[in-house]
Write a structure and sequence with these properties.
Helix content: 25-40%
Radius of gyration: 20 Å
Number of strands: 10
Strand order of the largest sheet: 4-5-6-9-8-7
Oligomer: single chain
Shape: globular
Number of helices: 8
Distance between the termini: 43 Å
Structural class: alpha+beta
Largest sheet: 6 strands, antiparallel
């Protein structure tokens, strides 16, 4: 983990547990640099990362203000890339995963158009059931190009795929675009998920790219509505004139 990521993680944890309350100001860059024994440039990079995730906002002439508020319901990051295991640790949620299916498939024309994966390519397709605090909350359908991810052991699939990709295969996960929708629950949702009597699910589609710009992963996650809670940060776009 890069040094700025360590500082980001430490500050984020402090914000989330209330060490830096809503609308308070973080210590100055000089103070943080001294506390962590790092350069101001590293501190600045960590603060920019915090701002991109909606935790803080730079206030000219005043400093870095905390704009994060703890929500009653747990929430995942829509703008950030983190594994469910990482989100669970951040939110204090017990995460457990059961691998339902693993197979190698060929990307057909329809899937290629929808996912961005190249037509005819070989892909590893996984189906996983994710439990949050003991309740079946998410069905994940993951697809990885075998040219980038030739295999994923069952142990990794049931713990953290991203940890395996980054630390075992050396895959650099750089960016991901996301689409969130609400859909009627299908037979698989009704069979596996704890829907609490509801007949719809939240669906998040993710299209992920590695450091060489290859779209190597397509994931479709189907969430029980009670845990379908995400947070993102929005910034004002330039006005159209």
């Amino acid at each position: 983990m890069a040094k700025y990521e360590e500082i980001y993680s430490a500050l984020r944890t402090g914000i989330e547990r209330g060490d830096y309350p809503f609308l308070s100001f973080l210590p100055s860059e000089n103070s943080l640099a001294g506390d962590f024994g790092i350069s101001r440039n590293t501190v600045r990079k960590a603060l920019q990362y915090l701002a991109s995730q909606g935790y803080v906002q730079a206030m000219q002439g005043k400093g870095i203000q905390v704009i994060f508020r703890q929500h009653r319901n747990s929430h995942f990051l829509l703008a950030g890339i983190e594994s469910l295991a990482e989100a669970g640790r951040r939110l204090g949620i017990e995460v457990r995963t059961r691998l339902l299916d693993s197979r190698t498939v060929s990307v057909d024309a329809g899937l290629a158009e929808h996912s961005g994966l190249p037509e005819g390519a070989s892909a590893l397709a996984l189906t996983r059931l994710r439990f949050l605090d003991g309740r079946a909350a998410i069905v994940d359908h993951n697809m990885f190009l075998t040219g980038v991810v030739p295999q994923i052991p069952a142990e990794a699939a049931e713990s953290s795929i991203y940890d395996y990709l980054e630390n075992e295969l050396g895959v650099s996960i750089v960016s991901s675009s996301r689409l969130a929708t609400i859909e009627p629950a299908d037979e698989e949702d009704l069979h596996y998920l704890d829907l609490g009597g509801q007949n719809c699910v939240g669906v998040v589609e993710s299209f992920s790219f590695d450091s060489s710009g290859v779209p190597f992963e397509y994931t479709r996650s189907r969430h029980a509505a009670r845990t379908f809670s995400f947070i993102s940060i929005a910034q004002r776009l330039p006005a159209q004139r």
